[in-house]
Design brief:
- The protein is α/β, with parallel strands linked by helices.
- The protein is built from ten helices and seven strands.
- 41% of the residues lie in helices and 16% in strands.
- The longest helix is centred in the middle third of the chain and has 17 residues, at 130-146.
- It starts with a strand and ends in a 20-residue tail after the last strand.
């Protein structure tokens, strides 16, 4: 039975980083994937050439290319302003918008698509970006309004990340992470094996070329794309979720598990 999954993100490139493999796998299995972003990501870091050319438009074009690489059937941008990472509430920015108003706009898409699953972010918004926190809040409100039965919070395994950061510091790499970022392993419900979809995930990441430069530190996207393929597979070959209302237990490998008929 084919299902429809709507994947809701804050900015272009978030879809590739956190859920790209899962979206590609769902598409490859014959299901419909709809990609929705809240903003065009116009406040993201980028090189001077991209900023001068209108970063928001560039990033939406990159989003379309990423969606094609993953196999998504539809892409929508809600058109809110990018809040940036400094936490300031700019007028019209997504993190400052009324949750109910934004949720109503997303709910319309969920209803149009008869969505079976919605992906959002964890309660912390991953690493705490204000637009990511808003995705969690708006997404859950929209799912309640639309009656979408399954909400999956895209996240990372905090325990593994903390070990990686500690290992990097021993090698004098400038790695750091908030202790409350993402989700503790004991609270995860889904671990999705996306190793077969890594070529599509890599292509989706590469589509976001504007985010490989800019800023004073090394960019995550550039570092990931430079990884040797075995290390890329080791670090990015699985994606993690928490299903709202599902008790943690043995990790599930199927985003549609709660919808499938029980024998």
């Amino acid at each position: 039975m084919p299902y429809t999954l709507v994947s809701f993100h804050a900015h272009p490139d978030d879809e590739a980083l956190l859920t790209g493999g899962t979206l590609a796998r769902v598409c490859a299995e014959g299901h419909r994937v709809v990609l929705v972003v809240a903003t065009a990501g116009e406040a993201g870091l980028a090189g001077p050439a991209q900023v001068g050319a209108g970063l928001g438009g560039i990033r939406l074009a990159e989003l379309a290319a990423s969606a094609r690489a993953l196999g998504c059937a539809r892409v929508e941008c809600l058109g809110y302003g990018d809040s940036g990472s400094d936490g300031s509430l700019r007028p019209g920015s997504f993190s400052a918008v009324d949750t109910r108003e934004a949720a109503a706009r997303l709910a319309r898409i969920l209803i149009e698509e008869s969505a079976d699953v919605l992906t959002v972010y964890d309660r912390a918004g991953g690493y705490g970006h204000p637009d990511h926190v808003a995705v969690h809040q708006v997404g859950h409100a929209a799912a309640r309004s639309a009656g979408t039965p399954v909400v999956l919070e895209a996240t990372l395994d905090r325990d593994a990340l903390l070990r990686l950061v500690a290992w990097g510091r021993r090698l004098r790499l400038p790695l750091r992470m908030r202790a409350d970022a993402y989700t503790a392993r004991a609270d995860l419900t889904h671990r999705i094996d996306v190793r077969a979809q890594l070529p599509a995930k890599r292509a989706a990441l590469a589509a976001h070329a504007s985010q490989a430069s800019g800023g004073s530190s090394s960019r995550t996207l550039r570092l990931l794309l430079r990884l040797p393929r075995p290390l890329f597979a080791l670090l990015l070959g699985r994606e993690w979720f928490v299903e709202a209302g599902r008790s943690p237990g043995p990790l599930c490998g199927d985003v549609f598990d709660s919808l499938r008929p029980r024998k």
